């Protein structure tokens, strides 16, 4: 049911004039993709420095919460750019993206990364701050940092897989993959 | 007097020489004449099992290495932004810039090594294409200039004395140059994918 709705939504977007313009423009799609990837450096670069500090891998002599607080703004700016360019990339090729298994895994990892970030922030604010100058953060925060690193590595890897067609609807007849990717028509034809 | 001036600015002069060399290579089209000599190396990369063949035979390996390349570029971005924005006085104003530049340099070096290693693998998979791409050669020139800039000029200068003894405009210029260089490396890398 949800796959049918998503497909209809994708088809509706694909019929939009602006969606077609984004793909048809000689440079528009490339610029969008380039901006999306370059904003990685701002968002994930800042995030990884925070996570590395929690693990004691960079600047162990600088208070951990100071690094987290100072890099928060560049990280959010990078994320906002990444989010909007990402939405436009989906809008440009909606059906293809919505029916991509990698895109779906990426979205799932993104949700998990957000939950982890929320838990991480809550734990950091709840901590009494006596660890701030320690070379490594307390265990719960270290675990949160490792989970964050793993999830964001997964997000980037899945994003990189999206253009590849190994498990596109037309290239597989595995029912589980077809269901997970939302290949409604191919599933009906089985 | 000239001698003492030259010995004081050895690294600056080395960098200027490298940049001049790059400009000369470009202006007099020396680079294009080097192309022919580099072709056998690119063909070897493309046909080497552990580089080109592995990447083109197993698409998932190639895509995963590409992802590692992107992630290492992201870490480079993070370290460069943290250190250079501090030099510009935009963020981390309450932390000495010496602490930040030293604290992020090791991470930068590791990420750059990973980015170069994975970049060689990625380039090998499409060596027969990138060899003919202008944007690829521009990226290589900027990457070499950037590495020379960081290791021969920026870091030695920043480590040589307390930053408050260095002209603030020199620090700002260093930061802007560094930001521009690594942004260009990343942007030209992305553009290779579109060419």
Overview of this structure, please?
The complex is a heterodimer of chains A (190) and B (195). Chain A is built from 9 helices and no strands. The longest helix of chain A is centred in the middle third of the chain and has 29 residues. With 195 residues, chain B is mainly α.
Protein traits:
heterodimer, A: 190 residues, mainly alpha, 9 helices, elongated, B: 195 residues, globular
The best one-word shape of chain A is: elongated
| Amount of helix of chain A | over 70%
Mean pLDDT of chain B: 85
Q: Using only CA atoms, what is the Rg of chain A?
A: 20 Å
Amount of beta strand of chain A: under 5%
In terms of quaternary structure, the protein is heterodimer
What's the quick description here?
The complex is a heterodimer of chains A (190) and B (195). Chain A has 190 residues and is mainly alpha-helical.
Secondary-structure map with pairings?
The complex is a heterodimer of chains A (190) and B (195).
Chain A: H1 2-14, H2 17-24, H3 28-54, H4 64-92, H5 94-98, H6 101-126, H7 139-161, H8 175-181, H9 184-189
Chain B: H1 2-8, H2 10-27, H3 30-47, H4 49-57, H5 59-87, H6 97-125, H7 127-130, H8 134-160, H9 168-194
């Amino acid at each position: 049911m949800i796959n049918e709705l998503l497909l209809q939504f994708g088809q509706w977007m694909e019929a939009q004039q602006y969606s077609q313009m984004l793909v048809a423009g000689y440079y528009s799609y490339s610029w969008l993709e380039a901006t999306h990837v370059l904003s990685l450096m701002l968002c994930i670069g800042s995030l990884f420095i925070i996570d590395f500090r929690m693990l004691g891998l960079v600047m162990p002599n600088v208070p951990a919460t100071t690094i987290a607080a100072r890099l928060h703004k560049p990280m959010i700016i990078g994320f906002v750019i990444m989010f909007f360019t990402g939405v436009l990339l989906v809008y440009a090729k909606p059906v293809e993206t919505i029916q991509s298994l990698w895109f779906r895994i990426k979205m799932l990892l993104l949700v998990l990364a957000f939950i982890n970030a929320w838990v991480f922030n809550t734990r950091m604010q709840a901590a009494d701050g006596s660890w701030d100058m320690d070379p490594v953060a307390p265990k719960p925060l270290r675990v949160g940092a490792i989970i964050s690193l793993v999830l964001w590595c997964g997000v980037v890897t899945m994003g990189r897989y999206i253009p590849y067609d190994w498990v596109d609807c037309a290239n597989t007849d595995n029912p589980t993959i077809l269901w997970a990717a939302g290949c409604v028509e191919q599933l009906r034809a089985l | 007097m000239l001698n003492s001036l030259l010995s004081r600015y050895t690294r600056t002069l080395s960098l200027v020489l490298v940049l001049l060399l790059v400009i000369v290579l470009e202006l007099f089209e020396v680079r294009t004449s080097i192309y022919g000599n580099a072709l056998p190396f690119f063909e070897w990369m493309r046909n080497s099992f552990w580089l080109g063949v592995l990447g083109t035979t197993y698409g998932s390996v190639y895509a995963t290495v590409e992802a590692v390349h992107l992630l290492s570029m992201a870490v480079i971005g993070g370290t460069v932004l943290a250190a250079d924005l501090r030099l510009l006085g935009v963020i981390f104003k309450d932390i000495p810039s010496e602490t930040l530049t030293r604290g992020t340099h090791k991470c930068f070096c590791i990420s750059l090594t990973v980015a170069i290693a994975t970049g060689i693998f990625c380039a090998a998979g499409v060596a027969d294409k990138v060899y003919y791409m202008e944007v690829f050669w521009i990226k290589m020139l900027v990457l070499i200039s950037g590495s020379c800039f960081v290791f021969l000029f920026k870091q030695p200068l920043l480590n040589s004395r307390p930053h408050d003894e260095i002209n603030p405009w020199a620090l700002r210029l260093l930061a802007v140059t560094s930001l521009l260089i690594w942004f260009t490396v990343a942007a030209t890398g992305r553009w290779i994918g579109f060419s």
